[in-house]
Amino acid sequence: MKKTTGSDPAVTARWRPATQAVRAGTLRSQHGETSEALFLTSGFTYDSAEEVAARFAGEAEGMQYSRFKNPTVEMLQQRIAAMEGAEACLAQASGMAAMTSALLCMLSAGDHVVAGRAAFGSCRWILDNVLNRFGIEHTVVDGTDNAAWEAAVQPNTKAFFFETPANPTMDLVDLEFVCGLARSKGIVTVVDNAFATPVLQRPMDFGADVVAYSATKLMDGQGRVMAGAVCGSQQWIDDYLSPFQRNTGPICAPFNAWVVLKGLETLDLRAHRQSENSVQVAKFLEDRGLRVLHPWLASHPQHDLAKKQMKAAGPIFAFFAPKGQQQAMALCNALELIDISNNIGDSKSLMCHPASTTHYNMGAEGRAAAGIEDGMLRLNVGLEDPLDLLEDLDQALGKVGL
């Protein structure tokens, strides 16, 4: 009897998460390779003109063109869908391609979006400079305030868009309440889950309709490639995202998909270890007298909500240099082990100053409205020994008078 390879979603849905992360979606060629094959091809050949006609007409299964479907990318899509508990997934060229596609594929002029105020700078830019140009309005709310979501709903509201935890303020959105509110009013929820991944949080378990990712981050986990993913129901993917993606082209390259597939195999191990390390580092900084925003610390205003909807808080958190930007930058410059970088989710520890990097384009007023202060620093805690990280932070803090 032939062993299952993970290509049957009905089988993989019964597997536990750790097994799904290693085996779901695996398609083996006639060679029987153990590692997923890398199909570096833009096109495919056919045995007859009738066969290719049937595929383009949707009457026969099979590959047509790698902008439409590629075996390596298909494996990644099936694996992420299984881990997310979603019916379907489409991989994207980057996280921002995923966010943009998830919104533009279903919104039209005259529609309205309610968005959480704390968000990655480029996500806010899409709202302010892309959707607005096409007559799609939006209202920004404090995502932590359940009443604000309900008050912002208009007759033409078509989507709720937010990330939780938010970048870099670590604000949380009450998934159960907000997704329930959206469903009661026929509104589609689009959740950016990049900070947690399905290993630490599954928004669809709380009623989310669409979950989008920057797979560049924790899913890859080692800072190698750009990739994104959007998960949803099969009908939503077929009716909205698939036609948009096929014809506009924000596809994931096969090599990038293969790298992320390899990253997913260790995602559970990395995400939990980095979460443990981040708690240890956050406690050290808080004990040092600094203000820290970390959902797994009791001092976080939404600590109880974090425990309710997350398995762990992830590797990323924020803290503050009390004297502002100059002191924050001096602290970055004093680091000897931790790298200065605007990436996150990496197995190496990284720090950046959001106000001058990831959220610079929002402007001072926009940053203030989103809760991004000049003294804020964002830290991605990696897989190094946490004691080495504490020693590095200790000497850097000492150099800037902290």
Write the layout of secondary structure elements.
Elements (H helix, E strand, L loop, with lengths): L8 H4 L4 H7 L25 H8 L14 H14 L3 E5 L2 H10 L7 E5 L4 H11 L5 E5 L4 H7 L4 E7 L11 H10 L3 E5 L4 H4 L9 E5 L13 E5 L1 H15 L5 H11 L2 H21 L4 E2 L9 H7 L6 E5 L4 H10 L4 E2 L9 E3 L10 H8 L5 E5 L5 H14 L3
Parallel strand pairs: 2-3, 2-4, 4-5, 5-6, 10-11
Antiparallel strand pairs: 1-7, 6-7, 8-9, 9-12, 11-12
Task: Describe this structure in a few short sentences.
The protein has 402 residues and is an alpha/beta fold.
Describe this structure in words.
It is built from 16 helices and 12 strands. It is α/β, with parallel strands linked by helices and 402 residues long. The longest helix is centred in the last third of the chain and has 21 residues, at 267-287. The model has no long low-confidence stretch (mean pLDDT 95).
